[in-house]
Amino acid sequence: MKGLNLYLMNGMYWITASLYLPFISMYFAEKGMNTMEIGILSAVMPAAVLVIQPFWSRLSDRPGKRRKVLLALNLCCAISSMLFLLTDTFPEILGAAALYAVFNSAVLPVSDALAVSQAQKQGLDFSRIRMCGTISYAVVVLGVGFYLKEHIQMMFPFTFASFLVFSAIVTTMPGEDGQERKEATHGGKQREKLFQSREIIFVLMFAFAMQLGINYYSAFLGVYLLELGHNQSLVGVLNCISALSEIPILLLIDRISERYPETVLLSFAVLCMAFRLVLLSSGNVVLMAVSQFLQGPSYMICYFVCVVYVNKMVVPGKLSQGQGVLSLVQMGLGSLGGTLAGGMLASRFGMQKGFLIVAAFLMAVGAATSVAYRLYCRWRIQI
């Protein structure tokens, strides 16, 4: 099968994510952490994205380094994930989370940069590659959710093993050819700017709003469900539904992208995310399950449009740095807002009202960004 290692690489990234992201807040809660401490622990990853991730992105854009950097990051993630088993107190857990975040914060942008560039070279559709990740996530998170209900600490050995398999697949990826080396060596020296258009600002604003909402959801959904009397198995079911909702979007995203401009799609996605948070705030299991069907129209549209747009607008030789900027805005600023501000909201108003407050904020940011973009287009036409 053409490009099989690309499909496997993307699938393994999202398998590692499915073993950690949906359940880590529940692990924190079962370790006795309160909502504010969970907010702080969840903020470690976005803080690492802001501080450390740009270094990894610049390093991976050097000639012949992208595959090697991704391999090193995966191996370090595997080792550091096991340190959680040695922790009990808040400072210990904070240290383990910080070390894991140093390496994991750059895995997605470097992996996406490698996948997008190789997909273009081989004439493959990135949406189909990303679909492999969606299906892998859905299958694994559902099965693991039922198992972790009784063995929550096993998420770390599973993550360790998953990263080792991920690393093995990365070693099969082809190296850079002569043209890529030339662009990486000379393209960046000829141009100081990173993107070819200022419209990237509006795309990044939508990405920020989306990630703030999705991160509040991911950081506190598990704790919220525990508060309502549910367990890890329901987390697995809800995350499976959300992942499966991405498949129709990925099947149609190329046609949708040809018909509608990026800003329209992103505005729609942010609105869907706000509505999703409103449904989650109900506390009703049926409505919460319905909200998971909005994962595709919200997060996946935003993710795919942003990744493809960055790849299109970044200057030659700086693909990892371009994806790194997107990651900085989403996994850095957006996630930091979703965890720290979310932790304060949850502590003061409760998690249920927190969902509604974040939803209102998303609608406000989405509307303001849409208006600002229209004003910018009019101004550009006039000059």
Textual characterization of the structure:
The chain contains 18 helices and no strands. The protein has 383 residues and is mainly alpha-helical. The chain starts with a helix and ends with a helix.
Secondary structure class reads mainly alpha
SSE order: HHHHHHHHHHHHHHHHHH
Shape: globular
**What is the terminal-to-terminal distance?**
51 Å
- Sheet bearing the most strands, described? none
Hey, roughly how much beta strand do the residues contain? under 5%
Number of strands: 0
Regions with little confidence, pLDDT below 50 for 5+ residues? 177-181, 183-190
Task: Return the average pLDDT rounded to an integer.
Answer: 86
Q: Helix share of residues?
A: over 70%
Radius of gyration from the alpha-carbon trace, in angstroms? 20 Å
Number of helices: 18
